[in-house]
Design brief:
Elements: H1 3-18, E1 22-31, E2 34-44, E3 49-53, H2 60-67, E4 75-80, E5 83-84, H3 90-98, E6 100-104, H4 115-120, H5 129-134, H6 139-151, H7 167-181, E7 185-189, H8 197-214, E8 217-221, H9 225-231, E9 234-239, E10 242-248, H10 254-261
Parallel strand pairs: 3-8, 3-9, 6-7, 7-8
Antiparallel strand pairs: 1-2, 1-4, 4-5, 9-10
Helix pairs in contact: 6-7, 7-8
The structure holds adenosine-5'-diphosphate and magnesium ion (MG).
Adenosine-5'-diphosphate is lined by residues 31, 36, 54, 56-62.
Length: 262
């Protein structure tokens, strides 16, 4: 890498730091006659962990689908790392998706593949197509993946099949995968809903720590308000597709949270 490349990259990073990692501006999404998202606005800074709360049907998963563009919005604006998503061509969209790491409730790993191979899948968006077709990763990719597994405390499980791991370990592999992907924004839709309390706390702790260390913005939907209080910097709550609350975690009162679920 030349000095000029380095300067260009650090300038890009500085720019990325100065703007929100994620911005939703009056986003609307309609299904039939009803709005799943009705004028939803909030933003997330790099390194910030935001808990997305709200009862079932509030529109949480719809928020995730609109950001990853699995669903198209009917109004408003979504920008990721300062880039507006409207009118992206296929190439820009691929680039856009590469910067977003996804974690779901049902551990979306390939069960019969090893933890390492599942982590390497995070490199797919970076590798040239021929490498992907041959599933041939470079030494750098493998090193990055092993370092990611080490970071989530699973280096000793690298060659174990994903389906032989506990639920909490599988979610940590999913976190390793987004680390290998070098995502700047992580969307986690109920990542701890299937885990016991200890494993849930562990997974959210790792997620928060990597957010701080690497400046990754995290949007994480949760059902447990106590976990949101413990691990999120900010709480955003929705109800019937509308934003009810958007506050730093320390200022959120119990009655205001209860009102969201009432
Ligand atoms: N593909 C779809 N077609 C029609 N309605 C949908 C679709 N996806 C979600 N909805 C509706 O949008 C609303 C929000 O759903 P969702 O985002 O899944 O909520 P949450 O994740 O908070 O439980 C619900 O009323 C749901 O029925
Ligand atoms: Mg949902």
């Amino acid at each position: 890498m030349t000095v000029l490349d380095r300067i260009a990259i650090s300038a890009e990073m500085a720019m990325a730091q100065s703007q929100p990692a994620l911005l939703l501006d009056r986003v609307r999404k309609r299904y039939g006659a009803s709005f799943a998202l009705d004028d939803v606005s909030f933003s997330i800074a790099p390194g910030e962990v935001v808990a997305l709360l709200g009862p079932s049907g509030a529109g949480k998963s719809t928020v995730f689908r609109c950001i990853s563009r699995l669903a198209t919005i009917d109004g408003g604006r979504v920008a990721v790392l300062g880039q507006d998503m409207a009118g992206m061509d296929r190439r820009a969209l691929r680039e856009h998706r590469r910067g977003i790491g996804l974690i779901f409730q049902q551990f979306n790993l390939i069960g019969r593949s090893t933890a390492l191979d599942n982590t390497l899948a995070g490199r797919l968006g970076h590798a040239p197509t021929w490498r992907v077709l041959l599933r041939q990763f470079s030494a750098d990719d493998r090193q990055l993946a092993l370092a990611a597994l080490d970071r989530v405390g699973l280096l000793d499980k690298a060659y174990q099949r994903a389906d032989s791991l506990s639920g909490g370990q599988q979610q940590r592999v999913a976190i390793a995968r987004v680390l290998a992907q070098q995502s700047r924004l992580v969307l986690a839709d109920e990542p701890v809903a299937s885990l016991d309390p200890a494993a849930a706390a562990n997974v959210l702790g790792v997620l928060r720590d990597i957010a701080r260390e690497r400046g990754i913005a995290v949007l994480c939907s949760l059902h447990q308000t106590d976990l949101a209080r413990r691990y999120a910097d900010r709480i955003v709550a929705m109800r019937h597709g509308k934003l009810m609350l958007d506050q730093p975690t320390g200022t959120v009162t119990v009655p205001s949270l209860n009102a969201v679920y009432a």
